[in-house]
Amino acid sequence: MQKLSEKPYYTRIALLGIAMYLFIEAVILVVTLIVEPSQWAYACIVGGIAAAVGVVIYFVRPWGLILGVLVGLLGILFAIDGLGENLSSPDSFLDFAYRPVIGLAAAIFLLGGSAAGLVQHLRGRTSTSGPAGVTAAVKGILALVAILSILSAVLTVTNIHGVAAADKQGATTITAHETSYDAGTLTAAANGTTKFVFHNGDPIVHTFTIDALGIDVKVGPGSEKLFELTSPKPGTYQFYCRITGHAETMQGTLTVP
User: Fold this and answer.
1) Which H/E stretch holds residue 39?
2) 10 Å Cβ neighbour count for 205?
3) Distance (Å, whole) CA 58 – CA 28
4) Residue from 156, 162, 157, 144 nearest 92 by CA
5) According to the model, what pLDDT value does residue 39 have?
6) Which residues pair with 255 in a beta bridge?
7) Sequential DSSP letters for 169-224
8) Cis before residue 37, ω within 30 degrees of 0?
9) Residue 61: strand, helix, or coil
10) 132-148 tens-digit pLDDT
């Protein structure tokens, strides 16, 4: 069996992308087991798929490279889904670093390495060494990914904050956990001020949003915020999490009698 160092240059770049996927899924698994153990399957499934693709790329040529191109394209689509939201949340590692930083870089390595490796294979010009410019670019991307990921991890920890006990008095607490709200119905007074505390018990960003009332409270992992409603018009209002893919399981109604 060939050693990794004996594999063609671009095949190794594709496998680097797979290694990055395995790394981030391992991080997600560890965080999930600590914060919300019931959600462990996601990281295992995605990590298992990445590992299987890596095995095919390593042992089966050129079909493994064709698979790498297809999975790399899917990886880029996955990485840019909700790109703006994720990039605007550097204080949430699993939002900021997962898709637009580590995930996007991994997909680029997988797609680029597989495509270039396939072209060289068809031309019969495979080599264990590659252009110095490509090597420098790969190292530069890895350095940028490492810096951004470390900064995001630090911001995630340092920006965890809560609401003082005194401020919570008389407030209704809404908790987000395992991508769902703990209450599907809420009530607010039509006259006077109603206080709410939105607590995020997940390792990712959530919002409490009511479009009709102009409310959009965004809370990072492990944090909470106090907000108030002052004499809203009587009626029934829908609240939801506006983060891409969350509204399906995170929504409810606020009633103002």
Assistant:
1) none
2) 24
3) 25
4) 156
5) 83
6) 187, 236
7) TTPEEEEE-SSSBS-SEEE--SSSEEEEEEEE-SSS-EEEEEGGGTEEEEE-TT-E
8) no
9) coil
10) 999 999 999 999 999 99
CA–CA separation, 16 and 58 (whole Å): 11
Q: Which two tokens stand for residue 70?
A: 């297809």
CA distances 256 to 96, 169, 200, 215, Å, are 36, 21, 24, 15
Instruction: Look at the pTM and tell me if it is higher than 0.70.
Output: yes
DSSP of 111-169, one letter per residue? HHHHHHHHHHHHHT---S---HHHHHHHHHHHHHHHHHHHHHHHHHHHT-----HHHHT
CB atoms within 10 A of CB 100: 21
Long-range pairs of 2-10 with CB within 8 A, sequence gap ≥ 24: 5/128, 6/128, 7/58, 7/128, 8/117, 8/120, 8/121, 8/126, 8/127, 8/128, 9/117, 9/126, 9/127, 9/128, 9/129, 9/130, 10/112, 10/113, 10/114, 10/116, 10/117, 10/120, 10/130
Count other C-beta atoms under 10 Å from residue 192's C-beta. Answer: 9
Pair 172, 196: CB distance under 8 Å:
yes
- Residue 206 main-chain phi, psi, to 5 deg: -135, 160
- State how beta strands 235-240 and 251-256 pair: antiparallel
Q: Tell me: the pLDDT tens digits for 42-101?
A: 999 999 999 999 999 999 989 999 999 999 999 999 999 989 999 999 999 999 999 999
Q: For residues 18 and 56, what is the distance between their CA atoms, to the nearest angstrom?
A: 11
Residues of the chain with pLDDT under 50: none
Beta bridge partners of 23: none
Strand partners, 207: 218
Instruction: Extract the tokens encoding 189.
Output: 């007074």
What angle separates helix 41-59 from helix 63-80, to the nearest 10 degrees? 150
Tokens 């996927």 — which residue? 21
